[in-house]
Here is the input.
Amino acid sequence: MARWLVNNVSLMVLAVLMAFLVWVVASLQQDPIVENTLSAPVVIVSPPNDQTILASTLPASVTVRMRAPQSTFDALGAGSVQVPVDLSQLGAGEHVVKLEPVVRASPAMVLSWRPVTASVTIAEVISTSVPVRVVLEGVPAIGYRAQPPLADPEQVLVTGARQIIEQLERLEVKVNIEGARSTVEQTARPMARSRDGATITNIVLSPTIVAVRVPLEQLSNFKDLAVRVRPVGQPAEGYAITSISVSPQVVTVFGPREAIQQLPGFIDTLEVSVSGATQDVEQRVGLNVPPNISPIGDNMTVLVRVRIEPQQGARTVSRRPIIVGIGDGLTAKVSPLTVDIVLAGPQPTLNRLTLDNVRVEVDVTGLEVGVHQLTPKVTVPEDVSVQSVVPSTVQVEITSANR
Here is the structure.
């Protein structure tokens, strides 16, 4: 047996090798080895300590060429191939970072990848308090003067890269006071400005919102007066004044300080006649300006609107019901002979009602001989409403005309 083994050992080795080769060929046919190109995301696994990335050429992903069995590629999931970047040990300054893909699957071989490096500039993060400067836009109403604005808080903590913070000169908050007559209060986000006025970004503000208050002072020889309209006369009978409006509602006047201080808080218009009016009155009228006092700008006249509407009233009328829809050979008798209708609407319209304006009909279409209780239908003008009908139903007796 020993001699046989010695004489045939080469044949046995050859047989094993042939069996392994057959197994390899069969495996490659079922799960061939292929090459593919993948996109591997670049992931910062550790940011710089107490610092920030000021600039970098780090790509979002790296193109990776891999060789592996097809089953390995089929099993790849999200995060199986990544390019981790550790910046925790980098200090301030510019650095070249290696981009090396990591494959969390096997068997697999990375053949190549692009790009292989990237540059990263690390900056020291600092914080500083910066005063808030309020910038007023526009001008207040004539006769008013803006007082120094107040910001709350007066300073804001700004955090960012040292290179950016060193360019920062001020924080601006803009407030519009155009035409204002009283203290202006607004909230706004401060804008960071450099020495040349350029806007600075990539910083963090705390707090992010600033409240601003701009007091306004009225000059001693100016005064705001509410406008009071003076209507005279009465509208036509049945009509009434329902509202009075004026534009502008407040006018500014100026004059000697002593005269201004003696003025009441209002100024009258000249008379606005509404005598006999049946519709709205709209006209531009002057102001009853005291001596030595002058209105400002275009406030010599104001636009007055007096709304005139019919007064609402009520009226009760009696009408005889009219039978409609009576069949051939039939007659009808209604009881009672008249009904009372309570109406509501504009008084002038109610005063002009005639027999033709208010009709009461009882429809007997399709009804046969007999006694019927029916609800009358009342027809009135469009702007008049029926409040009630007394009685609400009437009796109709239908008989044959041959009886």
